[in-house]
Design a protein that fits this description.
mainly alpha, rod-shaped
Length: 135
């Protein structure tokens, strides 16, 4: 106990008996025991509090690590997809297509063509028609 051997403990007891006397020694030993008990309780309470704080700090550190991972993953996903850039490109392409395509011009109604057939005369012979065409 406290790095002392049995001989050292007996020496302390003998000195205590000489200074305190046999009548005050028992009450003093009880008070010393109470003091050590209180110190032990305080130390164990402080140790428990420190361990709890260490656990909380570990939990906070893990939470910050998860937050960093999620932020990095979100940035990577946004970089890969470029959602806003793709959306703006699609809108500009749509506008370009709408501007490049001319609107159909309204067409005026066509006037009906008049087709006339000339009546064939019965007097002409097919052989005469050919000679007239050759001449």
């Amino acid at each position: 106990m406290f790095g002392m051997g049995l001989g050292e403990i007996f020496l302390i007891i003998i000195i205590a008996i000489l200074f305190l006397g046999p009548d005050k020694l028992p009450t003093t030993m009880v008070e010393i025991a109470k003091f050590f008990r209180q110190v032990k309780g305080t130390v164990s309470s402080a140790r428990a509090t420190l361990e709890e704080e260490m656990k909380l700090s570990e939990i906070k550190e893990k939470a910050l690590d998860y937050k960093r991972e999620l932020t990095d993953a979100s940035a990577e996903l946004e970089r890969l997809t470029n959602v806003t850039e793709i959306g703006s490109e699609l809108a500009s392409v749509k506008n370009d297509l709408n501007l490049d395509t001319p609107a159909p011009a309204p067409s005026a109604p066509k006037e009906p063509e008049v087709i006339t057939f000339a009546p064939k005369s019965k007097d002409t012979k097919p052989s005469e028609t050919k000679t007239e065409e050759n001449a």
